[in-house]
Design brief:
130 residues; Four Helix Bundle (Hemerythrin (Met), subunit A); 0% strand
Length: 130
């Protein structure tokens, strides 16, 4: 059985790997898939952060709520990063589930460095908590 620390490390690895997948999708112009991967990169990082605090949710909306309640509203995580997570959550839902929607480079490309910033901020928080 794995320890929480092993799971946290795994989720951070997945976050970094998924960011790379997003960059590859951007290079080929697959913007719906790119935003999906950006969201999941942040999701993996967020779930690692929540796990460190003993928090977990089986639903994406629960992860979002815990992140906002325990990290954004308390000032531990910058409001801009909380807003980004919410934006990626909404964009991913649109791109994955809304028919006839093609996300554009103009909308998605600026999210790539911001998602990387989110993952890096979570990594810094986790290192500070060790």
């Amino acid at each position: 059985m794995s320890t929480d620390e092993e799971v946290i490390a795994y989720r951070l690895d997945r976050a970094r790997e998924t960011l790379e997948e997003a960059r590859l999708m951007a290079e080929t112009g697959h913007w719906n898939t790119c935003v999906n991967r950006l969201y999941y990169a942040c999701f993996y990082a967020a779930t690692a952060l929540l796990l460190r605090e003993g928090l977990a949710s089986a639903k994406h909306s629960g992860v979002r709520a815990f992140l906002n309640q325990h990290f954004v509203k308390t000032g531990i995580l910058a409001q801009e990063l909380g807003a980004l997570y919410n934006e990626l959550f909404d964009s991913r839902n649109e791109g994955d589930y809304r028919d006839l929607l093609r996300l554009s480079a103009d909308r998605v490309e600026p999210l790539i460095p911001r998602a990387a910033e989110f993952v890096e901020a979570v990594e810094r928080l986790l290192r500070a908590q060790q």
